[in-house]
Design brief:
This protein is an alpha/beta fold and 317 residues long. It has eight helices and 16 strands.
């Protein structure tokens, strides 16, 4: 029976999420023949060149790195066809692979995806699952084909999305489950023990990329809807709001819902009003803020924020 350290792979990935899987393969003595990642970008005020997390790690380990703008780039294709690998492993790379590249390995190209396919194909499956109030999600390992996240599934595992789970919690759980599933999938593939499960196209949903405008809080939505947004975007990029008569953004990083009947007050509240206990009036119910972050500052508790601000002067737009 073949083992993990019997093979070499080509790895396609870009963000920190990908790097977790790349490091795990490396620690399990899988030979990383080469890395393909997104090209360096200019970022920050000084427009410094920023390498992807995968690129940065690969350089330190002296692994061969390719950074094509897309996988049809002539020089890239000419180089990559000369590489001899057993598997291509794709984890949040950011580009589709061509059939020529998909078919290069001795076995197959496989992909790690952070949802229960065919639900939430695409760029932002974790955020979309929380925003949609899904009660469960999971990880799929699938064979790569030419379409987006549409290949047959090699193995998968689902887990619950708890009421207080945010993006970070699901992200970390996805990595833990995914690393284990990926190694299991590799073993079945190289020992010709794989059983594929084809996706039901009638059940497909797409997790489109998160836009900057989506992270703004609108208090004329229900507390339930707003809390889903806070959980989906916590802690990065963070669901944000603005205090009345101020241009300062405040991210709400953690909150919970308070029903209308639970608010003990003789006052009537309008949307955006804040109670003395930092409960914000929404179109339906209230949202009790627990952790927030002022622009340019570190996250703090709501009680610490109130110690430095007069609650009577506060209202959210």
């Amino acid at each position: 029976m073949k083992k993990l350290n019997d093979i070499c792979v080509g790895f396609y990935g870009t963000p920190e999420f990908s790097l977790n899987f790349l490091k795990d393969l490396f620690l399990n003595n899988i030979k990383i023949s080469y890395i393909v990642t997104q090209p360096p970008k200019n970022s920050g005020r000084g427009k410094k060149i920023r390498l992807s997390p995968v690129h940065e790690w690969g350089e330190k380990k002296q692994i061969k790195i390719y950074t094509p703008s897309n996988t049809t780039e002539k020089n890239f294709v000419n180089n990559i066809v000369r590489e001899k690998v057993d598997l291509n492993i794709v984890v949040a790379y950011g580009n589709l692979l061509t059939k020529k590249i998909i078919d290069l390995p001795n076995y197959i190209s496989l992909n790690v995806h952070a949802s229960l396919l065919p639900r939430w194909r695409g760029a932002a499956p974790i955020q979309r699952s929380i925003l949609s109030n899904d009660k469960e999600t999971g990880v799929c390992i699938m064979r790569v084909d030419e379409k987006l996240d549409s290949g047959p599934i090699i193995n998968s595992e689902k887990f619950e999305i708890k009421d207080d789970d945010n993006y970070d919690a699901i992200y970390n759980r996805t990595i833990d489950v995914g690393k284990r599933l990926l190694k299991k999938a590799i073993i079945t593939i190289i020992n010709n023990q794989t059983n594929y499960e084809f996706q039901d196209e009638s059940l497909v949903t797409y997790a489109k990329k998160i836009s900057k405008s989506e992270s703004k809080i609108f208090w004329n939505k229900s507390a339930h809807e707003i809390n889903l947004k806070i959980r989906a975007f916590s802690e990065t990029p963070g669901a944000w709001t603005i205090l009345k008569d101020s241009n300062t953004r405040i991210k709400i990083l953690k909150a919970h819902i308070i029903k209308e009947e639970q608010i003990e007050s003789n006052s009537s509240y309008n949307v955006g009003d804040i109670t003395e206990r930092f409960e914000v009036k929404c179109s339906k119910d209230f949202l009790k803020v627990e952790v927030l972050q002022k622009e340019g500052r570190n996250p703090i508790s709501a009680s610490d924020f109130l110690n430095g601000n007069n609650i009577k002067d506060l209202k959210f737009n």
